[in-house]
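**User:**
My hope is that you can spare some time for a protein that puzzles me. This is the protein in question:
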Amino acid sequence: MDARCGKRRGFTILELLITIAVLSVLAAIAIPTFFANADVTLENAGILLARDLRAAQNRSAYMAEPCRFEFTEDGDGYRVTDARGAIVQNPATGLEFVRSYSEDAVFSGVVITGIECGGDRTIVYDEQGRAAEPARITLEFGGERRVVTLEPGGGTVKLLGSTSGWIDQGY
């Protein structure tokens, strides 16, 4: 039997390229539309902030050294520093522990509008990972708000008004 007479199997390179191009156009339209929804964007920004607070706390407890969770003056983000003021590595990524909403396309437009955690916009974790005082951080986007709270001591983190049902798992 001649191999040229059999049924064709698989896809040609051209068919694959066309499929990838169509999927790329659909993603380029769908992703910005999805994240333009204030509820989705704020929920994810709030969860990220809560997880970063927990990561900083865990880092302090694991490394047995204090750290500072410092919010930027412009409300665009935050960074985590050690006792000397040097930016530390994010244990989850291994990169510098710095977050800037304006540089992260997914969260562009999210602003930290309220920080209640003492007079200097800083949350301090001791060498056992305990927060010195309570904190309340307000995020805004598109007229919507989410509030992240941190309890002193054990540092329970809550996302008030959560629509996803996110719950702090503790450290």
